[in-house]
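Annotated sample (chain length 187).
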Amino acid sequence: MSAFYHIRELLAHPREHWLEVAERRESVNRIFRRFVVPLLCLVAVCTLLGAILFVSRFEFSAAFVIRKIGLLLFALSAGLYLSSFLINALIPVDKRNFDGVFALLSYSSGITFLLIAIVELFPFPYLKEIIVLSFYSVYLYWRGIVEVLNITESKRNGFLVLSFIIVTGVFLFLFFFFGKIFGAILS
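Output written by the structure step:
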């Protein structure tokens, strides 16, 4: 199933699609290859096209574009793995399910990946606010916690808050810390 199938189904029927995801029990590698990689490629292509089409030739720098694409690809993919690992550690040992956590985090982040691609394709200052729509990913994640991870309803909101703090912290760390490293390498 394609990445866009999952995104469409999550938008149209989130609860039913999460039940389908839980039943299918796909491996991390399969989800990464069939869902995450196509979205990462879309982000990379949109970043490159946005730089070519909308950045003036006096400001265009191949090194900057390469650094930006490299940082986006690294931070987004490493962020999914590291966040999944840390979130899985929140679950009691007898119920841990790394594949389920990775599926839940990856599929719910699909909307955010698409929004990043749009913002990178059209790098206009007023369009950056579209990223606010990525909070829908938080809702999708919340909807899937019970179905995919078998977290009880009473613990769902607390689990969501802790997950949100972990994901936000991981991505901020990766973007800022490795942004400095990528910048130093290509300077």
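Annotation: The radius of gyration is 17 Å.
Annotation: The mean pLDDT is 86.
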